């Protein structure tokens, strides 16, 4: 990160005398500011963020909505280890309805993880793996037509 000095605002009697390089130059008296600080503090500049990464849970939620299934249920089925090194194991349950009488329940248990969110994502990845094997898309269709 490079630091760039911020020039002072022009005064009423100042008509580009700052470029003369004389003793009246006030640019050295102002503190340097970083470019990143200017971008964050300026309300007129849009803050560009990178692409949003979909988690396995959000993909699973969207696939369930798209296919008119019930929402997936995530439940903690095991907690191991001492309180400072706890490992959580979650299971994901998805009830799929195909037609009026056909019902499939998919239940996957994820790998033990150090936090609950990543443990739920691990279980959702198992359900997504199974859905891909059944022929369902891994990621939801994001190509919606805009009118």
What does this protein look like?
With 147 residues, the chain is of the alpha+beta class. It folds into two domains: 3-41, no CATH class; 56-134, Double Stranded RNA Binding Domain, CATH 3.30.160. The chain is 25% helix and 23% strand. It is built from three helices and five strands. The protein has helices at residues 35-41, 56-66, 116-134, and strands at 3-5, 32-34, 73-80, 87-98, 102-109. The chain has a three-stranded antiparallel β-sheet with strand order 3-4-5. α2 packs across α3 (116-134). The longest helix has 19 residues, at 116-134. It is flat, with a radius of gyration of 28 Å. The chain starts with a strand and ends in a 13-residue tail after the last helix. Residues 33-42 have low confidence and may be disordered.
- Contiguous low-pLDDT stretches (5 residues minimum) are 33-42
Distance between the termini: 42 Å
Characterize the overall form: flat
Largest sheet: 3 strands, antiparallel
Mean model confidence by pLDDT? 75
Provide the structure class: alpha+beta
CATH fold-level topology of the largest domain: Double Stranded RNA Binding Domain
By oligomeric state, this entry counts as single chain
Q: Could you tell me the radius of gyration in angstroms?
A: 28 Å
**Strand order, biggest sheet?**
3-4-5
**What is the CATH class of the largest domain?**
Alpha Beta
The proportion of residues forming helix, as a percent range, comes to 25-40%
- Second CATH tier, the architecture of the largest domain: 2-Layer Sandwich
How many domains? The number is 2
What is the count of DSSP helices, taking H or I runs of 4+ residues? 3
Number of strands: 5
Biased composition (Pro residues): 1-11
Organism: Cynara cardunculus var. scolymus
Region (Disordered): 1-33
Protein name: Double-stranded RNA-binding
């Amino acid at each position: 990160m490079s630091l760039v000095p911020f020039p002072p605002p022009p005064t009423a009697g100042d008509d580009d005398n700052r470029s003369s390089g004389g003793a009246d130059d006030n640019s050295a008296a102002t503190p340097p500011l970083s470019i990143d600080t200017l971008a964050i503090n300026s309300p007129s500049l849009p803050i560009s963020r990178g692409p949003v990464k979909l988690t396995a849970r959000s993909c699973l939620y969207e696939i369930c909505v798209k296919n008119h299934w019930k929402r997936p249920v995530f439940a903690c089925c095991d907690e191991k280890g001492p309180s400072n090194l706890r490992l959580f194991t979650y299971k994901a349950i998805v009830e799929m309805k195909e037609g009026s009488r056909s019902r499939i329940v998919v239940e996957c248990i994820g790998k033990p993880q150090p936090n609950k969110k990543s443990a739920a994502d691990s279980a959702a990845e198992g359900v997504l793996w199974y859905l891909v094997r059944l022929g369902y898309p891994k990621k939801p269709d994001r190509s919606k037509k805009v009118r």
